[in-house]
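Incident log, structure service

09:12 report received: a user says their structure output differs between two submissions of the same chain.
09:20 pulled the input from the user's history:
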Amino acid sequence: MDIIKQLAEELSLTVDQVEKTVALFDDGNTIPFIARYRKEVTGSLDDAQLRDLFDRLTYLRSLEARKAEVHALITEQGKMTPEIETALKQAKILTEVEDIYRPFRPKRKTRASVARERGLEPLAQALLAQEAEYAPTLDEMAESLINPELGVESAEDAFAGACDIIAEDISDNADYRKYIRALTFDLGELKSTAAKEEDSVYALYYDFHERLKKLPGHRILAINRGEKEEFLKVSVTMPDDVAVNNLFAKILKKGTSPAKPYVERAIIDSYDRLIAPSIEREIRSSIFDDACEAAIKVFEVNLKNLLMQPPLKGKTALGYDPGYRNGCKLAVVDKTGKVLDTAVIYPMKPQERIEESKRIVKRLISTHNVGVIAIGNGTASKESEIFIAGLLKEIDEDVKYAVISEAGASVYSASKLAADEFPDFDVMQRSAISIARRLQDPLAELVKIDPKSIGVGQYQHDMKPARLDEALGGVVEDCVNTVGVDINTASHSLLSYVAGINSTSAKNIVKYREENGEFKSRAEIKKVPRIGDKAFEQCAGFLRVSGSSEILDCTGVHPESYAAARTLLKKFEYSSDDVRQNRLAGLRDKVKKHGFANICAELQIGEPTLMDIIGELEKPGRDVRDTLPQTVLRDDILDIADLKPDMIVTGTVRNVIDFGAFVDIGVHHDGLVHISEICDRFIKHPGEVLSVGDVVEVKIKSVDLQKHRIALTMKF
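09:34 re-ran on a clean worker, output below:
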């Protein structure tokens, strides 16, 4: 297999493009580095395209490795043939390779292996030949094989053993298995029934069946979970006798033969006992894997949009972690994320110390000039929102609030990372700090939490942990490197996602900073243990040194391009101060006038690099998140009981899933916009229109107060 050529065809890329990109991977370059600083080499492939290329490259290489391994194993047995060799070369997926190897795989004791030990294989071969006449007859052959010492007591025992051998050989035939697998997927259904007579969230699937080829991923994941929790019995069904009749057509020879009834019996047994259960397992595993991959893709998009939410800059925030019996924990965090004050209030039952709680919150607001309150959306969130909305009406300060998702906050608060970061605070106080910081800078805070716990996926806890961690880790890495990191303020968690920096290197950076003070330049990073030349090459462009005398250290310009950037500035008579004071608005037009190709030739760089340098010089230290919709801040309360059909409200998309999107409209319970209610045109997935963090107008369709369900529509 020519892997490079196949990748180019599958991903609609040029062979040269794939070849050079693969060489970058093999040379140890990270995906963020390649996406940002090797555009000329890759043809400007973005991080998503690079990850798809890398994943597919990894699969094809593992496929080739397995082919070579199987080839060697069959050759060692002395059973390699030109036909097998050709089949191995043509195999396109690992399942096909395993089908080819199946007859040669060392087996545990089976009915067929026992029959072979009893010397019944010649009879099996005779039956499978399906001759019109036999001399000696089949009965005479069977009787000659009777051997009570080997367990063959009668001619019928001999025929039964021979049929067992035929059944296993049919089951082990790679072509038959491939055909039946495809037939089952094309015509089969997934069927589920109730495993226990009690109501549950899986009631929809208590009498359910749907064609495998049409089954959407979210239903597959839901049914699998229902089976795992023992609410459902699940099976793959086929139309009556379709598979067996197709095997008859492939195996039975034309004409009459005394062997035909035995071969028919063996085919039926092979399908019922060996092929069907095995194919069912394979297909269910395959559709589950496909559903997981689709769900992971949705999770990746949601997570990226959540992490890239714009920070709320320039405001001191009050984090509010609601609670009943143990009170509501408060933490005031300044504009840089430093904790200024903490408190506990009891505005709700059972204590209801409302006036005392108001005094404490008012004192914190006035003392620390709090500009915004971040309320966690967990237990007692609604009562807390009512309390804060009422309090804000009693003060003169311009303070608003936002309800923030607590997903994963408790996981972080109880972690060793949180204990190391805030050793003087208890778990609940850490949670309040985290809630405030989530509003101030979602990315910097959420990187401390396992992505699976952030709450923007579907059925994430049912997926293969390693694959999910790999995919979501890649998303976090892309987001961190897209935004860039201030090396003098970033946490160990944030630094560990920078290209070229692992957890150990990140800890070394923090330790160096604590021992030597702030970094003065990017070049100083090389003094940190475990940051060698290769690591520096990968990470330098994503690290910002805000206090550096070198203005380029505050931008996304890579050190390898400093000379080109300086030459560019000098050519058009700009200084470092011009960059600092944002006085380069005309640079792009001047370059265009001279001709981009001419400037590229003069600077000896490619056009993508030139455009990136110009963009960074025009807006040094810019945050790409600032152009995104800002967090919706509120100063009054809306209750679910206030909602009426046809009411139009503004909300924020919190999660996008296969069948719709959940929208926070400020009533503690998110409403659902079903995929059919998103727009007038047909869409395959809600993600075509909506993203996590989008601010949208929705109309109330219906409200179920008892079940706290809100149906929304965007079609009005």
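09:41 both user submissions now match this output. Likely a transient worker issue. Closing.
09:42 reviewer note: The radius of gyration is 33 Å. The longest helix spans residues 260-307.
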